[in-house]
Amino acid sequence: MQTPFGQTAATRGSYAGVDALHVSRHGAGHVRLSNQVTHRANVWALKELGAEAVIGCTACGAVDPTLGLGSLVVFDDLNFISNRLPDGSLCTFFTESGDPARGHWILQAGPYSPSARAALVAAAAEAGHPTRDGGTYGHVDGPRFNTPTEIAQLAACGVSAVSQTAGPETVLCGELELPFALMGFVTDYANQVKPGEPTPVEELIELMGRSTAIFADVLAGALPRLASAAVEPAGTVYRFEQG
To answer: Quick check: pTM over 0.85?
Structure first.
């Protein structure tokens, strides 16, 4: 479909008996690296097509050494200081002066919907997957991975795990008042999180391959929960035209 922010593709169908939409941020065959993901078009399309809540799934590198490889994290906070899209522009839908929808996304707590998070945590427990309830997601710019110094800085800020795509998704869903929750699957320990014990590349790739089935398993339990409950967005969007 065409959006004000470019073209994107979405699949509409049913999953676990629930009407669902799916957007592949990287495209079939992972044709787009993280620096080429069309975040604004993707999120706008979900809203336009009637999404009532959004779940983001990301493979991530652990910054917290107590996270186990192959485990899940349902994040409750965000470190995304740059607030930039891959092209370097600010991560926002509010790009025009006088836009009647313009406003500030005000966060009294974390940027993730509590009820959407609860659905993921409950579904992961029911499916028997080891899951950390809470943690700070760190957005990093790709496509390269990070240096030891960069990871140490993020660790000092309390970041639990990092990846290269979910910062913009969090912010853009927030601006459109779409309830959003983010689930990470730990594929490796980030650079020098465990000095002298780097995660072998072969193990990282194998875990990335396993992540798809585990995400699908959790979503099969989470979607019916989301469909049967009132799911609220995080924070408040104060829109000037609406007072």
So the answer is: yes
The per-residue DSSP string of the chain comes to -EETTEE---EEEEETTEEEEE--TT-GGG-S-GGG--HHHHHHHHHHTT-S-EEEEEEEEESSTTSPTT-EEE--EEE-TT-B-TTSSBS-S--STT-TT-EEEE-SS-SS-HHHHHHHHHHHHHHT--EEE--EEEE---SSPPPHHHHHHHHHTT--EEESSHHHHHHHHHHTT--EEEEEEEEEE-TTSSTT-PPPHHHHHHHHHHHHHHHHHHHHHHHHHHHTS--PPSSEEEEGGG-
Using CB atoms within 10 Å of the CB of residue 218, give its burial: 0 to 12 exposed, 13 to 18 middle, 19+ buried.
buried
Residue 82: what are its φ and ψ, rounded to 5°?
A: -65, -30
The CA distance from 179 to 54, in Å, is 6
9/50 Cα distance (integer angstroms)? 15
Mean pLDDT for the stretch of residues 150-178:
98
Q: Which residue has tokens 């008042």?
A: 177
pLDDT one-digit tens code per residue, 24-37: 999 999 999 999 99
115-147 per-position pLDDT tens digit: 999 999 999 999 999 999 999 999 999 999 999
**Which CATH fold would you assign to the domain 53-242?**
Rossmann fold (3.40.50)
Phi first, then psi: give them for residue 128, nearest 5 degrees: 80, 25
pLDDT at residue 158, as a whole number: 98
Kindly indicate the confidence band of residue 81, based on its pLDDT and cuts at 50, 70 and 90. Answer: very high
Kindly list the domain boundaries of the chain, sorted by start residue.
53-242
